[in-house]
Design brief:
Structural class: alpha+beta
Number of strands: 3
Strand content: 15-25%
Radius of gyration: 12 Å
Number of helices: 3
Strand order of the largest sheet: 1-3-2
Largest sheet: 3 strands, antiparallel
Order of helices and strands: EHHEEH
Length: 64
Protein backbone atom coordinates (compact mmCIF):
# COMPACT_ATOMS: atom_id res chain seq x y z
CA UNK A 1 0.00 0.00 0.00
CA UNK A 2 1.42 3.43 -0.90
CA UNK A 3 2.57 5.74 1.85
CA UNK A 4 0.46 8.79 2.67
CA UNK A 5 2.28 12.05 3.32
CA UNK A 6 1.01 15.08 5.23
CA UNK A 7 2.04 18.72 4.86
CA UNK A 8 2.63 21.03 7.79
CA UNK A 9 -0.78 22.59 7.12
CA UNK A 10 -2.44 19.17 7.22
CA UNK A 11 -0.68 18.38 10.50
CA UNK A 12 -1.78 21.73 11.88
CA UNK A 13 -5.38 20.93 10.95
CA UNK A 14 -5.07 17.40 12.42
CA UNK A 15 -4.02 18.79 15.82
CA UNK A 16 -5.88 22.10 15.61
CA UNK A 17 -2.66 24.14 15.87
CA UNK A 18 -0.87 26.68 13.70
CA UNK A 19 0.80 25.12 10.67
CA UNK A 20 4.27 26.06 11.97
CA UNK A 21 3.76 24.24 15.26
CA UNK A 22 4.84 20.82 13.89
CA UNK A 23 8.16 22.39 12.89
CA UNK A 24 8.56 23.73 16.44
CA UNK A 25 7.78 20.25 17.77
CA UNK A 26 10.74 18.97 15.74
CA UNK A 27 13.06 21.12 17.85
CA UNK A 28 11.34 20.51 21.18
CA UNK A 29 10.37 16.82 21.05
CA UNK A 30 13.05 14.34 19.99
CA UNK A 31 10.37 11.67 19.51
CA UNK A 32 8.43 13.71 16.94
CA UNK A 33 8.85 12.17 13.46
CA UNK A 34 11.29 13.80 11.09
CA UNK A 35 9.86 15.08 7.81
CA UNK A 36 10.87 13.70 4.43
CA UNK A 37 12.01 15.97 1.61
CA UNK A 38 10.14 14.68 -1.46
CA UNK A 39 11.51 17.35 -3.79
CA UNK A 40 12.90 20.88 -3.53
CA UNK A 41 10.31 22.90 -1.66
CA UNK A 42 8.18 19.86 -0.78
CA UNK A 43 8.64 18.51 2.74
CA UNK A 44 6.09 16.11 4.20
CA UNK A 45 5.58 13.78 7.15
CA UNK A 46 4.74 10.11 6.73
CA UNK A 47 1.28 9.44 8.10
CA UNK A 48 2.38 6.02 9.38
CA UNK A 49 5.13 7.66 11.48
CA UNK A 50 2.71 10.31 12.79
CA UNK A 51 0.22 7.61 13.80
CA UNK A 52 2.98 5.61 15.53
CA UNK A 53 4.06 8.77 17.40
CA UNK A 54 0.44 9.38 18.45
CA UNK A 55 0.14 5.81 19.72
CA UNK A 56 3.35 6.17 21.74
CA UNK A 57 2.16 9.45 23.22
CA UNK A 58 -1.22 7.93 24.10
CA UNK A 59 0.46 4.96 25.78
CA UNK A 60 2.82 7.12 27.85
CA UNK A 61 0.25 9.85 28.67
CA UNK A 62 -3.14 8.12 28.89
CA UNK A 63 -4.73 11.07 30.72
CA UNK A 64 -4.33 13.35 27.67
Amino acid sequence: MPETYLSDRQLGARYNVHHLTPRRWLNEDPTFPKPVKLSPGCTRWKLSEIEAWEATKAATHPER
